[in-house]
Each structure stands twice: as C-alpha cells, then as structure tokens.
C-alpha cells in the first residue's frame, strides 16, 4: 500500500510508474467515470471505460511528454475511448440518476426532491443533445476545462469551440423551455 501524503504527490515526476498511475486514479478516477458516463449513458460501461483509460495510461505513461497536463491527457484518452464505444454500440432511452452531482445539500426533503428533479431534467436534456454539443458543455461546465484545453482535447479551433458552445446553450435552453411548455 502506498503511504505517502498528498503533498508528496505535488511533483508526480518523482514517483515510479505504479505510484504515478495510483495517484492519477485517485486524482481523476471519479471525473473519468463521470465524463465517460456523459457519453455512454450507462454507469457500468462508464466504469469499464475508466478502467480502460487507466490501463492505457499505464501502457503509455513513458510516452507522456508533459506538453499538456495529466488531466487533459487523461480526458483526451477518455473522450477517444468513449467515441470508439459509441461507434460500436446503440445507446437510447436511458433513465438518469443524480450522477453529475458532487455535493450533498442539507435542505428540506421537498427542496431536495425539487433539486433532484431539476438536475434529472437538465441531465436528460443535456444527454439528448448531439454529441458535439454535449461534449463541449460537459467539458466546460462540469469538468471546468478552459477553452484552450477543450480546443486541444477535441482538436478543434477556438472559434469552432465557441460556436459549438453557443449553439449547445441555445439548444439546451430550447429543450428545457420546450419541456416546460409541454408539461
């Protein structure tokens, strides 16, 4: 068992390969599962993809050139593996849970139910967007990556990214408002 303090991980370059992978898994594991889930919409498959991501990281760790952050590198691997899965599988009619939430609220049961319902509706509407719009929303808002990081990760120009993000917001707003009018 690795018994190092978090402060010892500040410079990952001093760790051996196994320690580095362990640190990466502890640091980014939940985020990778969450990111994969936004693509494939199935929790078990997202966890399987996360395992594949870290296996690939282990295999390719020696080729990592520090041209980007570990986070960007890992997210890039995750996005590519998810896109591969999407090409080979059919994903439709998924009921979502509060998978995106990282925090617990100490509200009343009624307000928690309302929040859960709002998050569920937002998640359903978000995951109904075409992948090119969904991924930019998720990477920007949920994963809090910068425009530059997203542009590099998806290999698209900054202008394309801004355009997709704007279009994604409009589509999401339209879907949400459309749902209110119907209900």
TrEMBL record:
Alphabetized InterPro entries for the sequence: RNA_pol_sigma-70-like, RNA_pol_sigma-70_dom, RNA_pol_sigma70_r2, RNA_pol_sigma70_r4_t2, RNA_pol_sigma_r2, RNA_pol_sigma_r3/r4-like, WH-like_DNA-bd_sf
UniProt keywords, alphabetically: Sigma factor, Transcription, Transcription regulation
GO MF term set: DNA binding; sigma factor activity
Any one GO BP annotation for this protein: DNA-templated transcription initiation
Residues of the RNA polymerase sigma factor 70 region 4 type domain: 126-171
Pfam families according to UniProt: Sigma70_r2, Sigma70_r4_2
RNA polymerase sigma-70 region domain boundaries: 24-88
Family statement drawn from the similarity comment of this UniProt entry: Belongs to the sigma-70 factor family. ECF subfamily.
PANTHER family from the UniProt entry: RNA POLYMERASE ECF-TYPE SIGMA FACTO, RNA POLYMERASE SIGMA FACTOR SIGV
Protein's name according to its UniProt entry: RNA polymerase sigma-70 factor, ECF subfamily
